[in-house]
Every structure is written in C-alpha cells, then in structure tokens.
C-alpha cells in the first residue's frame, strides 16, 4: 500500500490486535500487588518519586567479564580443569628445594598455556564489548521539556522518559506506545530479533492518547503507568495508565519491545517502562545449554587416567628410593657417596629413609609432569576455531538465492558432527521449502485443480507408471502465464471468471470471498507498477490471498474499520469494488486451530467467516450446513495422500443480538487483567464460532527442498538413522516420507494410532479417566505387537508411524523404553501431530536411551526445544525466521547441506581431533618415559635427564605446531570420495579412531618409543669416548642426544601419520626440528649462569662428534620401523574403510563407477532407506552381479574387502 494511502488507515477495531476499545471498568485487582509493582511516571523521570524507585539504567552489557573481574573469573575458569590445578601445584613446589629443575622453567609453560587461553577469552569478550558499545550508543530522540525532542544515546534513557522512534529504527527499551504517524495510533513492527518471525505485526496505542501527533503535544503530558514486574514472557503484558483523571487498561497491543524494529510507519511516541536488563529481550537472554562432545568427555577421563598412572609410578619410585636409601649405609660408609648426603639434611639420610621417600614422592610428581600434555586444551581450542572457519567458508554450503553460508555458532562440537547416529528432523521448512503454493481446492463437494504434486509423482513412480496429464491441462500448461509465487492452480472451470458457469456459483463466490477477507495480511502497492503484494503472517495465508486475487477476488485495501476487495459481479460480468466493515478478528493459534473474522456487508448482514483444521471445523458445522461434508472429507483425504496441507472453510450469518452479546463478553475478556484472561477470550470466541455452513477446503503444497531425497539417500548409506517429527497429519507426513525416499514400497509400516472404535466410543462418553487408561493400554498393546513383528523378521525393513495422541502415552516413564526398543528396530520413524514439547522429549529419549550422538534439525520457533535437547542442534535459516538458528549450534540454509556438513566436515573433524589427541598422549609418553627411565637409572635420585628449558619448551615449541597443522589440514580421503563412499562415516559413529583400544595402542607406542630411545642412547654412548681427548659422555651430552632423538622421532612419526601433506605441514614438521637445533645454538650461547649445563654443548660437544649424528639417525630409524611395519601390514592386509578408499584412489579406479558400486555393496549390508534402497530392491529382483566386475573384485582380494566396517 502506498504511503499516502496508508497514513489514513483507521484500524482501532482490528480486534486481532485491539480487540475492542479499552474500558475504564476493568479488573485491575492485581496491578500494584506482588508481581505487578512497576510504576513509571511519564515525562517525570527526574522527579523525586521516580528517583526513589531506583530502577536500573538502560545500559546493556553482554560481556562475560569486567575489567575488575576478568583476571579472577578467567583464572577460575582455567583452574576448573584438574590438569591445570596439578600444573599449578607442581609449579609452586618448584620454588622449594625439592624441585629437580628451576622454578622459572616449571612455571613458564603453565603461564604460556593459561595466558593463551585467557587471551582468547579476552578477545572474544572484547568483541562482545564492542557490540555493546555500538548498541548502547545508538541514538534516539528524547523529550527534554517544552515539547523539544533531541537525540541522545540509548544508555541515557530512564523509566518514564518519552521518546520518539522513527521509521526503520530499533526500539531502545520496552515502551508503552502513546501515538504514531497514523491518525489512530497504528504502527507496524518487525520482531525477527525477538521471536525469529519475519512477518510484520500490528501494534496500536490507546484511543485516548492516539491524537498526540506532534512534538509539542508532549510539553505538558503527564501520566502514571502501573504494570507487571520485569519478566521473560514476550506475549503478555498487564498494566494500567492513569491519564486525565481516568484509568485505562494496557495490553500487549500497546507494548513495543526493545530490539524490535519500526516498519512502514514514519514515527511513534512512547513511554519507557522497562530499561536495560529489565527489558523482555534481555530477560530472555539466557545462556544456551552447555554441550560437550563425547570425545572431550573421554579426554577428561584420559587425563585422570594419566594422572593416576603418574601417582602410581611416583609411589613406586619413592618406595624403591626409600629402600635403596635405607640400605645405603654399609660399614659406616655411603654407597652412593656421589649424591653428597653430607650436603643434605634429610633427602639422602639412611637413618630417615621413610621421610626421604615421602620427599621423593613430591619430587617425582614435579619431575613427571611431562606425562600430562599441558598444551592439549589450548591446542584443541585453536584447532576447533580454525576448523569452524573452514566450515563457514565452504562455498559448497553457500546458498546463493538467500545469500547465506553455513555458520558454525560454536566450535565445541566439531568432532561430534562426525559421530551422528540419529537425525531427528522437522518437516515443514526443513525437508520442505515452507513456501506454500495454492494448487487444489474442494468447493461444494467438487474437486478443482489439475496440478500434480511431488508426492503424487513419487507415488506414481512407486506404483510403476508415469502420470498422464489430460489434454486440457497440457494445453493450459503450454500457454501458461509467468509463474506467480504462491499460486500453482490450473483449472479452466474456475480461471478467467468461468466459475460463474459452475452449478454452485454462489458457494464458489463465498469461498473466494472468504479467502480474500478472512486474514490479517497487509496489502502493499508498488507505486511504479501499481501491482499489489502482501505482507502475511504465514506462507499459507499469503497463498490464500494471492489465490483469491488470481481467481478474481482481489484484496486491495485495509482500513481501521473495513476491508476492501474487487470481485467479479456475476450479473454484470464486471469487477466491482466492495467494502466490508471489519468488526472483529479472532486470531489463529495452535490451541484454537482456526481463525475467524466478523464483518458487515453493504446490505447490513453480519457474517462470521472462519477457516481452520478439519479436526475443529467439522464439529462446528450446523445441521443444515453439512450438505457437502462427506464429499469434502473424501477429497481432503485424497489431498492429504498427495502431501497437501488442507484447511476447511465455513461461514454463517449472525443476528445483531447474538453479536452484541459476543462483543460485550469478548471486550470484557480482553480488558481483564486476571490470570484467566485467555480462557475468557477463548470462551467468548467459542460461543460465536458455531452453526457454520461448509463451503469447502483448500489444499496448498509445501514443496520438498532441492536435493532432499538425494541427501537422505546419502545419509542412509552412511548408516545414519532419520526420524521425522512433524505437526502435520499422518497422511501428509507419510506421503512426504515417500516423496523424499524415507519410505518406500515393500516396507512394512507399523502404525500406532488411537483412532480405533473403542477409543472413539469412550471419547463420546466423555469419561476422561477411562479414556486415558484405555488409550495407554491400547498404545502399549500396539507397541508390543510391533516389537514382535520386528523381532520375528530379520530380512524385512520396517517403518514406525505414530500420531501425537499415542506419542503422549508412549513417552510416559513406564512405556518409553518399550517405545524406544521398537523405534530403534525400524528403518524409519515418523512422529505425526507432534507438539514442540513432544519433539524435545523424543529427542531426549533417543539421546539418553541409545547413548549415541543425536542431531536435531529444524527451522522454526517450535523446534528450539528439540535443537537444545539434542547433542547437536542444526538450525535452518528459512521462511520461519531466525529463532531456530539463534538456538542452534550450526546454521545452514538448506537441508541438503547436511550431507556435506556431516560426511565431509564431520568425518574430517572427527578424524583430526581423534588423531590429534592420541598423538598428544603419544609424544608426551615418549618424552616422559625417557625421564622416568633415566631417574630409575640414577636409582630414583630425582635427577632430571634434560636441561630445565629443554623440558619446558618441549610442548610449547618443538612439538606443538605439527599437531595443530594435523588438526586443521589433514585429510584421509578427499571431499569427493567422502561423498562417493558415505559408509566411511561409520568410522566416527562406531568411534573406531578414538576407542580405548586405539588410545591405549598410541600410548603403548609412546612408551615403547621412549624405552627404545633411552636404551639405544645409553648403550651407544655409555662406554664410548665422545671427544678427541677421550672424554666419555656426561649426562648433559646424554640428555642432549636423547632429546634430539625424541624431537626427530615424534615429528617423523607425525609425518608418517599424515595422509594429506600441504606446504604448511612440511614447514611446521621439519621447521620444528630445525627450531630445536637453532635453540641449541642460541641457548648455548647464553652465559652459563642462565644456560647452565647447556652452555655451548652443541657447538663444542654434540655437533663435532660423528657418534651424535650416527646415534640420532640410527635411533630414529630403529624406533620408527616397528610402527611403519605395523601400519604397512594393517593397511595392506587388514584395511579399515578409509584405507580401502585410499587403495582405490591409488590404483586409479575411483572413476570406475561399476567397480566402486560393487565395493560399496560388498562392504555393507543393504540400506533400507533412500533412493538407493529403492533402486537396489528393483535390481535384486531382475539382475545379478556383473561377471566382469566380480572378477575385478576377486583380483583385489589382497585388500580384504570383506574386512570393511559393517553398518550397524
């Protein structure tokens, strides 16, 4: 609608929003009482009374820390990890004489790690602080006396201030609206930042203040607002305003919430009632549930395991040390005189061996800290952040049409993406587009519309014959008009005014008249073209208004008291303009499941026009209004079979007395501020929505998103189970399941429903207790029957379909385990008519009952509970707004991108993180074992094998970067092959790369490598002359040689573990080794007061000695040979699935489609869901395996294809 036209709108009686003029005779008993104590003195925020209330300022902070709290809070967060507490304690002990090395070298690694993590926290909080500054410094016009409004920052606002907000600006606080640029105080509000909904909402001020249009009107304005206390409910508001010696009630219709935006309105005036953290949006700003991946939880247990092992070996070493010390004195002489017991008061005193053992325990705990990888946590955090950047930048998950890439909102769950066992998906807007198209309708018992839906096409393919369009439909298709969004209707009987020739033309006219009037859409007129578009609350409603327009009933104007349409007059054959007085709009909600309007036509008739779900509409029909009921129900059933969403349309005439009684009751209910306000309004609406005359039913199609069947097929091949949780009818959900290949012909369907005759009879009797008992028993019986059916067959696949009523009983504590056992035995599960709470409960049941990783995906506010309950929540940024995205862990714009997110990025992240953690434990155990063996070699005397700074920098400089590069860049299989062989994903689902067996294998390798390094070096150097003068090796030379071997071995082991080399990985691996030699040069050049026994050790001792280089080369090769041999044998003769794919790529057979198909078929049991399952079922009935390919497989038997991981 053009601006000039819209400015004269008069909407004070659009009762969906105003629900009648406010009355001073209302129930205000709660206002001023507990929970309703808020008082705002309008235009007097500086008064003494206002100051005494001491309400908070409008400054909003979303930061986690302040300048004063950052250090203590950040340190507290870091030392919640037991490993960091351990390193802190050992760091403190390093300042005592018990320490085997200097305090600085012990405390520096902890400072670096804690400092790096705190720096990351500080950077993230600084970004939040910058956002807070931007928001708090936004400008708004504030009344500053004498009718003058001047700009000020949001943060300066206080309760009671009067502000002027202009078009396309956000509201700076929660405001009570006083007036707007429209004559009667109307404004349009976008609430996407609050509830994710993209449609505009109408708000309206009280009639008594709606005439205050100018700045000067507020020069002497005074009012007192009393209302509810701050709370998180976005949809309720109870209060009163005292103005001009009168009291008026306030409702949510007058409340403008912070962070919503003013649209299509030049300006509004409002009084600030809630500021800062008292606003509803901030009351809702709770932190999402903290989620930790299974790998992270297991890693914590591994740290405890290592620390327990560390304590154990420290105890063993201390006991041995105590025994040796006790036996050290022989014939009055010390055996170990070189330990200088005379220079120690207790430590080596044979007479106090027990105390010596205790002190040695503390020394050992300090010395063995290198068994625990101190930099593990910070390295993983860095890697995960970099992984999310790669996910966000993946062009293959960018949706050009909506201009939205994938966005990982958290980095905590990257590896969890590679372990998903079950996906729980919404249907509408997730599997489908949530872009409705009017395609068919039933009017007066006659079906109209020749189009075919995607479900009908899938059903035709399932039955083995193509759809045959009639000639008329083909002809119409050939001369089709340009596509109109929301309208895909094709039937010459109704198009181009031909409906007037139909036998029930009067019913058809009322049908489309209802579609043009019964809605809350807002018309928008393009000034350039004159074309009308609509702002509607839902895609369904937009489709209805567009359909009415295209079929000759054009809604073009809404005023405060009327709706105007252009419709075809059958008598004259011309389009005429008709205006209907709008009396009431009774809104749709999930409880009512219907929407009604009451209008008065130009003849003075009062009409109730209603549309809603069949479950509530048919029971409201009058006895003489059911003429077409049977035919309509039959056609609606056919529409549901075709995957269409249906609504029933009906109307009735009401007399003035009946309307008067309703309007009084409805207005009184609306003006009530009691707790039963909503119930009173519903009772009033229910009293008038009776005795309807059936007109017919609409059928709109919600098309499948592009690539959904193919994506489900790939996920099924990967062994991932898919559950669909939807609020749609069972017939619609089932047929969408067939269209997207979640269901297929030949599957046995187990349907659990409470539509049996016994239950229906009890419902008619109305005994609620008997109904509940019988329903529960019926559901348990059906579940047990289904379990017996599943258990009795090993070859057939089953699909479980359950409705919302049955699901309510299936989720009860004593039934849910039975239900879960049945569900996990089925290939597909569809839960119909599910409420948001039921979706969350089902998700929790699957997560806790199976113990496997669950992923929930949805696009609407009704999916938020499900997303937060699942291990991973995926939000789709679709037509239902952004609330699901805001509650999600990862956001994508299309369901099909889930395939790449899981099978590619999920697999890579799982493999990288798993290998990275295992490698951390390996390299630290290799290093720690040499320290332990050297101390044992020196009779547990507490002597360190290496220079202090060698040990301190091992995890920080010489071995840290290669493992980070592995975590970011390594690929066992390319993205293309990950998608080509989806079964590879099962390595993560079965946790094959981070099982206890694999972890202990890496640990065992580390211990063995440490043993080999120590004994090879000791054997090679112990009795050899190391210098030209014949001097033997000192312990600093032995330490330098062992350290060099360890650095070479762990970095070369990394090189052997990497499957995908990049230049960066070459640089960090070989660069880390080079940095070690550079460090030896630089550190050895420092005066001996600082470098101690490392002073010039490399230049003068190690580098000139050939035995140093020979020993390094020999020990490195000899230590790595066992691992290299094991890896070769395992890959050649006992390959895992990724090894097989690597062989296929190496042999150049990755492009041989037939060969790859046979590899897949021999590697797994046949899938039961998806396009491939459907195709395989057909192929198995007609043809066998190709002899040529079978021969090729047999020739490759050395690769042991049958050892591939089987799908669970």
UniProtKB/TrEMBL annotation:
Enzyme Commission identifier(s): 7.6.2.1
Residue positions binding ATP: 426-428, 541, 588, 611, 645, 726-728, 833, 839, 862-863
Compartments reported by the entry: Membrane
Tagged with keyword rRNA-binding: no
Coiled-coil zones: none
Catalytic activity entry: ATP + H2O + phospholipidSide 1 = ADP + phosphate + phospholipidSide 2
Required cofactor names: Mg(2+)
Entry keywords, A to Z: ATP-binding, Magnesium, Membrane, Metal-binding, Nucleotide-binding, Signal, Translocase, Transmembrane, Transmembrane helix
Domain P-type ATPase N-terminal intervals: 49-104
Catalytic site: 426
EC category name: translocase
Purpose: Involved in transport of phospholipids.
Protein's recorded name: Phospholipid-transporting ATPase
Organism the protein comes from: Zingiber officinale (Ginger)
């Amino acid at each position: 609608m053009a601006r000039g036209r819209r400015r004269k709108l008069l909407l004070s009686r659009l009762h969906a929003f105003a629900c009648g003029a406010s009355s001073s005779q209302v129930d205000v008993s709660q206002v001023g009482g507990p929970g309703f104590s808020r008082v705002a003195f309008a235009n007097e925020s500086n008064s003494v009374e206002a100051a005494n209330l001491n309400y908070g300022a409008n400054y909003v902070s979303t930061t986690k820390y302040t300048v004063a709290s950052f250090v203590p809070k950040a340190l507290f967060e870091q030392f919640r990890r037991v490993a960091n507490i351990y390193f802190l304690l050992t760091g403190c002990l390093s300042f005592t004489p018990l320490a085997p090395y200097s305090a600085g070298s012990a405390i520096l690694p902890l400072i670096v790690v804690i400092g790096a993590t705190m720096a990351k926290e500080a950077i993230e909080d600084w970004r939040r602080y910058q956002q807070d500054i931007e928001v708090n410094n936004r400008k708004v016009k504030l009344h500053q006396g004498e009718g003058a409004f001047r700009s000020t920052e949001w943060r300066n606002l206080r309760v009671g201030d009067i502000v002027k907000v202009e078009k396309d600006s956000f509201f700076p606080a929660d405001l009570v609206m006083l007036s707007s640029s429209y004559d009667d105080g109307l404004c349009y509000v976008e609430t996407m930042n609050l509830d994710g909904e993209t449609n505009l909402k109408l708000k309206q001020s009280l009639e008594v203040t709606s005439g205050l249009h100018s700045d000067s009107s507020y020069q002497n304005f005074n009012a007192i607002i009393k209302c509810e206390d701050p709370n998180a409910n976005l949809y309720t508001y109870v209060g009163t305003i005292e103005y001009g010696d009168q009291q008026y009630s306030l409702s949510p219709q007058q409340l403008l919430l912070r962070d919503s935006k003013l649209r299509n309105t030049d300006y509004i005036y409002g009084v600030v009632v809630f500021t800062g953290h008292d606003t509803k949006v901030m009351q809702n700003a709770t932190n999402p549930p903290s989620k930790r991946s299974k790998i992270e939880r297991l890693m914590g247990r591994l740290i405890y395991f290592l620390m327990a092992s560390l304590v154990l070996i420290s105890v063993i070493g201390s006991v041995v040390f105590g025994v040796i010390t006790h036996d050290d004195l022989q014939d009055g002489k010390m055996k170990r005189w070189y330990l200088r017991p005379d220079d120690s008061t207790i430590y080596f005193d044979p007479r106090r061996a027990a105390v010596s053992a205790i002190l040695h325990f503390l020394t050992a705990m300090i010395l063995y800290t290198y068994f625990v990888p101190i930099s593990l946590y910070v390295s993983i955090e860095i890697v995960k952040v970099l992984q999310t950047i790669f996910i966000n930048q993946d062009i293959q998950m960018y949706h050009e049409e909506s201009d939205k890439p994938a966005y990982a909102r958290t980095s905590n769950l990257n590896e969890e993406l590679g372990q998903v066992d079950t996906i729980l998906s919404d249907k509408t807007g997730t599997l489908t587009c949530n872009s409705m198209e009017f395609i068919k309708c039933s009017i007066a018992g006659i079906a109209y519309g020749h189009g075919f839906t995607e479900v009908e096409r899938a059903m035709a393919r399932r039955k083995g014959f193509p759809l045959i369009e009639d000639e008329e439909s083909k002809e119409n298709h050939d001369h089709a008009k340009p596509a109109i969004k929301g309208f895909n209707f094709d039937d010459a009987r109704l198009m181009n005014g031909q409906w007037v020739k139909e036998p029930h033309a009067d019913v058809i006219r009322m049908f489309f008249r209802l579609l043009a009037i019964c809605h809350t859409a807002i018309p928008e007129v393009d000034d350039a073209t004159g074309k009308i578009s609509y702002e509607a609350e839902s895609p369904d409603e937009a489709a209805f208004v567009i359909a009415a327009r295209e079929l000759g009933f054009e809604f073009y104007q809404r005023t405060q008291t009327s709706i105007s349409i252009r419709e075809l007059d059958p008598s004259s054959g011309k389009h005429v303009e008709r205006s209907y007085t709008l009396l009431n709009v009774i809104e749709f909600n999930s409880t009512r499941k219907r929407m009604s309007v009451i209008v008065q036509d130009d003849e003075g008739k009062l009409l109730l026009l209603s549309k809603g779900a069949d479950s509530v509409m048919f029971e409201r029909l009058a006895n003489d209004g059911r003429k077409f009921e049977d035919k309509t129900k039959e056609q609606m059933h056919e529409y549901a079979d075709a995957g269409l969403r249906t609504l029933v349309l009906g109307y009735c005439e009401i007399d003035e007395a009946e309307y008067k009684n309703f309007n009084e009751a409805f207005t009184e209910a609306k003006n009530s501020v009691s707790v039963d306000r909503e119930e009173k309004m519903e009772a009033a609406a229910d009293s008038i929505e009776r005795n309807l005359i059936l007109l017919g039913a609409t059928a709109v199609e919600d098309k499948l998103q592009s690539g959904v069947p193919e994506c489900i097929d790939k996920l099924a091949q990967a062994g991932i189970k898919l559950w669909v949780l939807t609020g749609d009818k069972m017939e619609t959900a089932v047929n969408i399941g067939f269209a997207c290949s979640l269901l297929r012909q030949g599957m046995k369907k187990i349907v659990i429903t409470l539509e049996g005759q016994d239950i229906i009879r009890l419902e008619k009797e109305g005994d609620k207790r008997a109904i509940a008992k019988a329903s529960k028993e019926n559901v348990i019986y059906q579940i047990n029957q289904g379990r017996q059916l599943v258990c009795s067959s090993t070859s057939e696949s089953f699909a479980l379909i359950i409705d919302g009523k049955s699901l309510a009983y299936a989720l009860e504590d004593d039934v849910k385990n039975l239900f879960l056992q049945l569900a996990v035995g089925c290939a597909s599960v569809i839960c119909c008519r599910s409420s948001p709470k039921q979706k969350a409960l089902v998700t929790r049941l699957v997560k806790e009952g199976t113990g496997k990783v669950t992923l929930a995906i949805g696009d609407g506010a009704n999916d938020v509970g499900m997303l937060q309950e699942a291990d991973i929540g995926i939000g789709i940024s679709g037509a239902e707004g952004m609330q699901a995205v805001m509650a999600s862990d990862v956001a994508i714009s299309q369901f099909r991108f889930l395939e790449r997110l899981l099978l590619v990025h999920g697999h890579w992240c799982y493999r990288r993180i798993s290998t990275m953690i295992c490698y951390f434990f390996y390299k630290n155990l290799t290093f720690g074992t040499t320290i332990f063996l050297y101390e044992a070699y020196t009779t547990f005397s507490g002597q360190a094998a290496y220079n202090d700074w060698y040990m301190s920098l091992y995890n920080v400089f010489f071995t840290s970067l290669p493992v980070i590069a592995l975590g970011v860049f390594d690929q066992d299989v390319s993205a293309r092959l990950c998608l080509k062989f989806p079964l590879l994903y099962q390595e993560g689902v079965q946790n094959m790369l981070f099982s206890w067996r694999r972890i202990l294998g890496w640990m065992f390798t580390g211990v063995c490598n440490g043993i080999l390094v120590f004994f090879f070096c000791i054997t090679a150097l112990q009795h050899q002359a190391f210098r030209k003068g014949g001097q033997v090796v000192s312990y600093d030379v032995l330490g330098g040689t062992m350290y060099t071997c360890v650095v070479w071995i762990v970095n070369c082991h990394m090189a052997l573990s990497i499957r995908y080399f990049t230049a960066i990985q070459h640089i960090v691996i070989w660069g880390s080794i080079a940095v070690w030699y550079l460090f030896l040069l630089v550190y050895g050049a420092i005066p001996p007061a600082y470098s101690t026994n490392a002073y010039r050790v490399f230049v003068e001792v190690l580098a000139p000695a050939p035995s140093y280089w020979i020993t390094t080369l020999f020990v490195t090769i000899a230590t790595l040979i066992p691992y290299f041999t094991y890896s070769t044998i395992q890959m050649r003769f006992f390959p895992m699935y990724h090894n097989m794919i690597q062989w296929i790529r190496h042999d150049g057979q990755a492009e041989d489609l037939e060969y790859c198909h046979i590899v897949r078929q021999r590697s797994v049991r046949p899938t039961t869901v998806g396009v491939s399952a459907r195709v395989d079922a057909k192929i198995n009935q007609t043809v066998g395996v190709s002899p040529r390919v079978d021969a090729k497989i047999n020739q490759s038997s050395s690769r042991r294809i049958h050892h591939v991981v089987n799908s669970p």
